[in-house]
Design a protein that fits this description.
Low-confidence stretches of chain A: none
CATH class of the largest domain in chain A: Alpha Beta
Number of strands of chain A: 12
Helix content of chain A: 40-55%
Largest sheet of chain A: 6 strands, parallel
Shape of chain A: elongated
Structural class of chain A: alpha/beta
Number of domains of chain A: 3
Oligomer: homodimer
Order of helices and strands of chain A: HHHHEHEHEHEEHEHEHEHEEHEE
CATH superfamily of the largest domain in chain A: Response regulator
Chain lengths: 328, 328
Amino acid sequence: MMDVAARAELSPSTVSLYFRKPDAVSPSASRSIAQAIEALSYVPNLMAGGLAAASSRAVSIIVPSVRNAFFAETVATMQAELGKERLQVMLGHTEYSEREEENLVRMALSWAPAAVVLTGLSHTNATRKLLRDSNVPVVEIWELGSEPIDMAVGFHHEQVGQAAANHLIQRGRKRLVFLGARMQEDRRAAFRAEGFLETARNAGGIVADVIQHPAPSNAAVGAMLLAETVRKFPDVDGIACSNDHIALGVIFECQRLGITIPQRLSVVGFGDLSFSAACNPALTTIRPPGDLIGTEAARLIIENTSGGSVNKQHVIDTRFTLLQRQSS
Amino acid sequence: MMDVAARAELSPSTVSLYFRKPDAVSPSASRSIAQAIEALSYVPNLMAGGLAAASSRAVSIIVPSVRNAFFAETVATMQAELGKERLQVMLGHTEYSEREEENLVRMALSWAPAAVVLTGLSHTNATRKLLRDSNVPVVEIWELGSEPIDMAVGFHHEQVGQAAANHLIQRGRKRLVFLGARMQEDRRAAFRAEGFLETARNAGGIVADVIQHPAPSNAAVGAMLLAETVRKFPDVDGIACSNDHIALGVIFECQRLGITIPQRLSVVGFGDLSFSAACNPALTTIRPPGDLIGTEAARLIIENTSGGSVNKQHVIDTRFTLLQRQSS
DNA sequence: CGCAAAAATAATAGCGCTACGATTTGTAAA
DNA sequence: TTTACAAATCGTAGCGCTATTATTTTTGCG
């Protein structure tokens, strides 16, 4: 930076200002600084900057797994939005372990990040303490319900279960089953199941159950769960799945078993994954706004970072959409 | 760190050493340092460390998009492997633009990363120059073929196309079509198509074509491409898809059109995605080792970082596997 | 027990930048 | 012109750690 300053015949302070608040330097100074940067192919050292400022242009995003299309969507969107503000995304995967999340938060805080993004509202006490003490803005995504650490962007998963149940009931279904995978680890899937059961039980004249499998969701698990369901509850006529991978497996297994959808069985998924609209039959599903969660979370972070106005204590309910297609 | 040192009644140097080379401090010193860290809930400042050492414990991974399950798998695996060594993953998405990749590399280098990971072998000249000048180890993943910047982990995509063509020919298929999406941007898909065509043309008695669509791959595009294929080439009896999303669309569209798989049409995919084994019929596909690419790339980075032995100029061919299932 | 070599610990000198207040320069009204 | 005020620029003093070299302590062996 001193070299750039020397070449531009300005002080290092002005060059620093040029990077941090471009509008605060005169157009002529800007021009000569830009030239000097170009000529020297100067790349600022963000670690020195972060050290001096006691805060870096890094945002730590911690999700269960980016293998999961939901979180991949949000992470990708956030990276694009934050990148515009020259904020770097640092990524961590908890694999659904709160203990691991705690480690990742500890590592993240070593970087004095501009913000920390966590998935869900359930964390260890140590994680909470670490974050509170650090005074870093925290955004919790993909779940609403209990009190956030400071900001939250997401929706209520119980409401998803309720919407699925209501939809099936509206379609005249009486014998409902919720199919879930890995619900011990995936709290949000469990909430969806809970909302589903509660709504069905309050409806009157409806019978509802949950069948689950401990493995991560995929179509093979969905097929197994459907097979188990028709064995246990031969009169089932409405199925909600904890996500579209399970639903896809249900569709294939029904094809193999000769169960017609939606004539004999209505199926509702969750996720609106890339294949959901193209299935045979096209899958009725509930679409969580993974991209909107990303843009809103990024917006909160950017406002908190640049604005200086501590806009904390925000909760944004992004809602979700039920997309009715052929499967119900 | 000075506080920790004071509490442990040692010098800051020893505490620093404790973090960097734990084996170099005596067991008794280790113990008292550990206690002091615990008592003060000290979190080291990695930016100060990175500044002093002129190199950070961050690894920048730049992929087209983490929405793509292939790259999500590799990124997740790398994060897990690098996390063990307390290396932080910084993530960037190019959205298949080399210009954007250049920006991301520039941003990444501001962090003096321990390594930079790029997807593929095709980059702008400026990107190459930036990386060469920075002297940061570079690992290029998911593609082999031309000369890497310094290390590469992946496989030859032409060979994937060849394997698909050979498999279909072996199954007695004569009229082949390769279905591709977004092949202008996705060089690797284009290489697979190339390998497919070349092998089919060299086989004798085989006719092969490519049909493509500019949109990103998904099942809907696959369904469209299949419909177009049977319109243009009614005698088609073997199809290879640029990935399993396309293949899934093909399966569904064939169901709708009453085309039996594999009796009338053999289908081979690419990716072995989560649904591929559970399809109806189960999808024959070529499995790229996304996780192995991740572990090998992480290994190279760790060796380069800790070992000090500049193990550059490594090329690792991870190969791929053809999984024959019911669709061929 | 004494000595050399090895192991453990400590002192020193920055790494490259930012925040802050201080200073200089520019500009419009009196 | 002068003056007052805003805009632009600058100087200073670290941020918290690491690398290197120097020093002290421990160990093994005659």
